[in-house]
Write a structure and sequence with these properties.
single chain, 184 residues, alpha+beta, 60s Ribosomal Protein L30, Chain: A, 2 domains, four-stranded mixed sheet, two-stranded antiparallel ribbon, 2 helices, 6 strands, binds zinc ion
Amino acid sequence: MRRATPTAGTCLECGCTDARACPGGCSWVDETRQLCSRCGPVSLKVFGSCQPKGSTRTFVTKRGKTVVTSDNPGLRGWERAVRTAAQTVTTRRRGYMFMGPVSVTIAFHLNRPKSVRPTRRLFPTTRPDLDKATRGILDPLTGVIFRDDAQVVEIHATKDYTNGAPFAWIHVRPMGVPLEWEES
Ligand SMILES: [Zn+2]
Ligand SMILES: [Zn+2]
């Protein structure tokens, strides 16, 4: 695989260069010099009910076909929604993927059942389990936002209730770039 390292970098998002940095200053997020620290972090807002990645079962049919079944049929649609949102970013960045260590922050805002009053249950101490819901995010990001999920060296995940439509906020940033979280 050929990977050219440009001698003079230009940010894929904002077009800043070595000679003309962003106002206030910026740095390259990695040695490929394709993204600057102002534009590096990815923020995705995905609407829908997050789905936990449960156990999957793999078996081979008599005809030799490998079949993978999941115990959660809703997972596929959710993973597709996350992947589609991620692909929008990667397409805009002309295929750029993070190559180095990344930090992932995920905030799940779940649907509050009408029967559950805030006074009774402030936080969703029910399913989905946070770790399994996180898995349901990292898998569709792999090969789109970063090459390999082994690159994830930090995860911060939370779940709470929302009174509106459920959604998940996903932030991925290359290590060393500060998190600027704008919820708008
Ligand atoms: Zn930039
Ligand atoms: Zn810049």
